[in-house]
Amino acid sequence: MNDKLKNIKYEVDLGAEKLLAAERDSEKIAVEIKSFTKISFRHEFHAVLGQYLIYYKGLYQIEPERQLFLAMPSFAYNRLQTHPFLLEIVEDYKVKLIIFDDQKETLVLWKK
């Protein structure tokens, strides 16, 4: 383990939000699942993006071959589409997205 990370511990809410490690075809991935249940979408997005970037950096130092994805329900992704500045940030930081329908429990979009 990288010495910079040995004293840092992250806890993940096991309720609605999870960090999953998996393999997709031959790719190793990690998925940070966010529910977007807070009243202020922009405020929650700021926190989610910050957490994603911290996980990204830590994951890269531990398992550089594993790609990190941010999973969000389709209603949150639709809200994101109404915020051009936030969309620009997602593109600038190359945030990989998994969009799911939380009602039907199906995958809607897988965006690298």
Task: Detail the poorly predicted runs.
Answer: 8-17
Widest beta sheet: strand line-up: 1-2-3-4-5
Structural class: alpha/beta
Which H/E pattern describes the elements?
Answer: EEHEHHEE
CA-based shape:
globular
Q: Give the tally of β-strands.
A: 5
Describe this structure in words.
This protein is of the alpha/beta class. The protein has a single domain, classed as 3-Layer(aba) Sandwich (Trna Endonuclease, Chain: A, domain 1).
Question: Keywords, please?
Answer:
112 residues, alpha/beta, Trna Endonuclease, Chain: A, domain 1, five-stranded mixed sheet
What topology emerges from the helices and strands here?
Blueprint: E1 18-24, E2 27-33, H1 41-62, E3 66-73, H2 74-80, H3 84-92, E4 96-101, E5 106-111
Parallel strand pairs: 2-3, 3-4
Antiparallel strand pairs: 1-2, 4-5
Short description:
By secondary structure, the protein is of the alpha/beta class.
